[in-house]
């Protein structure tokens, strides 16, 4: 109510709220993994600090996507529906490879729907694997990371689509 009285457009408020939730999830990731920086410094592994930081940034893409998706869903749906959708999105993202195999072996409308859902949810485990590759020095495949970033952009653009009459 206070937002509408002050002249802030709802799409601006929701976009700012979504970005704020994404930054909060990134900050939580940094605070959770801050002990790794301390560990690297304490044991003289200073060469691991930059790869650790890059690993945290890449892993935070998953949490930023999840927080943005739940924020966008909560624009039109009740909080409990958004929470359930977040849990389903997380499970689908983690089990992406298995679900992709099942969708490719199935036939019919259910298989087509499963492929569409898997296309719209990034492969969280592949992104985590690339973050692990950054830390271990293995070759990094940028495709899962870029795919997740593009889907994150798509979710953020939904903020404008849901308020298209006002933009």
Distance between the termini: 19 Å
Average per-residue pLDDT, rounded, comes to 89
What sequence of helices (H) and strands (E) makes up the elements? HHHHHHHHH
Q: Structural class, judged by helices and strands?
A: mainly alpha
Number of DSSP helical runs: 9
Give Rg in angstroms: 18 Å
Rough shape?
A: flat
| Fraction of residues in H or I helices | over 70%
Provide an overview of this structure.
The chain is an all-alpha fold. The chain has one domain. 81% of the residues lie in helices and 0% in strands. The protein is built from 9 helices and no strands. Helix 2 runs antiparallel to helix 9, helix 4 runs antiparallel to helix 8 and helix 8 crosses helix 9. The longest helix is centred in the middle third of the chain and has 28 residues. The protein starts with a helix and ends in a 5-residue tail after the last helix. The mean pLDDT is 89.
Summarize the structure.
With 167 residues, the chain is mostly helical. 81% of the residues lie in helices and 0% in strands.
Main features:
167 residues, mainly alpha, flat
What layout of secondary structure does this protein have?
Layout: H1 2-5, H2 10-32, H3 34-42, H4 49-76, H5 79-94, H6 96-105, H7 109-120, H8 124-136, H9 142-162
Helix pairs in contact: 2-4, 2-9, 4-5, 4-8, 4-9, 6-7, 8-9
């Amino acid at each position: 109510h206070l937002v509408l009285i002050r002249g802030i457009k709802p799409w601006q408020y929701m976009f700012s709220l979504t970005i704020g939730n994404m930054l909060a999830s990134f900050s939580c990731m940094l605070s959770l993994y801050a002990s790794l920086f301390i560990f690297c410094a304490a044991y003289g592994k200073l060469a691991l600090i930059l790869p650790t930081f890059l690993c945290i940034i890449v892993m935070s893409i998953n949490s930023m996507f999840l927080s943005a998706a739940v924020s966008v869903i909560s624009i039109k749906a009740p909080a409990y529906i958004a929470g359930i959708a977040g849990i389903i999105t997380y499970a689908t993202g983690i089990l992406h490879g298995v679900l992709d195999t099942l969708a490719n072996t199935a036939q019919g409308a259910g298989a087509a729907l499963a492929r569409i859902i898997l296309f719209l949810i990034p492969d969280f485990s592949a992104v985590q694997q690339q973050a692990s590759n950054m830390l271990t020095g293995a070759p990094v495949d940028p495709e899962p990371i870029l795919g997740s970033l593009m889907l994150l952009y798509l979710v953020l653009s939904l903020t404008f689509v849901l308020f298209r009459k006002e933009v």
